[in-house]
Amino acid sequence: MTTPDEPTPEKPSGVPDMPGWAAFAVMGSTIAICEALGVGGGLWCDHEFGTAPAGIFVGVVLGTVLAVVSVVQQIRKYL
User: Fold this and answer.
1) Taking the domains of the chain in order of start, what are their residue ranges?
2) CA distance 50 to 19
3) pLDDT digits (tens, 9 = 90+) for 36-76
4) 50: region left, alpha or beta (phi > 0 left; psi from -120 to 50 alpha)
5) Residue whose C-alpha is closest to residue 67's, from 59, 78, 56
6) What's the rounded Cα separation, in Å, for the pair 39 and 71?
7) C-alpha 3: how far from chain center
8) Closest by alpha carbon to 70, among 17, 13, 28?
9) SS3 letters across the chain
């Protein structure tokens, strides 16, 4: 319980009031979607252009980079 003299801690603006498990579920979903898009795009490129292993490799790398950037942005909301 706070006394009238103590300032109440302010919550940073823009941070949703989400339980911990929901925040981790959003991060996990973000990673899965980014990887799926990267793999799907790589498979499509391999099929369309005949660049068999190169397209999937580039797709996985780009999906991973996108996933890391997205999760870092989500984590920065809580720092």
Assistant:
1) 20-76
2) 46
3) 999 999 999 999 999 989 999 999 999 999 999 999 999 99
4) left
5) 59
6) 18
7) 40
8) 28
9) CCCCCCCCCCCCCCCCCCCHHHHHHHHHHHHHHHHHHHHHHHHHHHHHHCCHHHHHHHHHHHHHHHHHHHHHHHHHCCC
Kindly give, in sequence order, each residue whose CB lies less than 8 Å from that of residue 46, ignoring residues fewer than 6 positions away: 52, 53, 54, 55, 56
The pTM assigned to this predicted structure is 0.74
Structure token digits, residue 65: 């980079």
Name the residue with tokens 């999937």.
Answer: 56
Radius of gyration of the chain (CA): 20
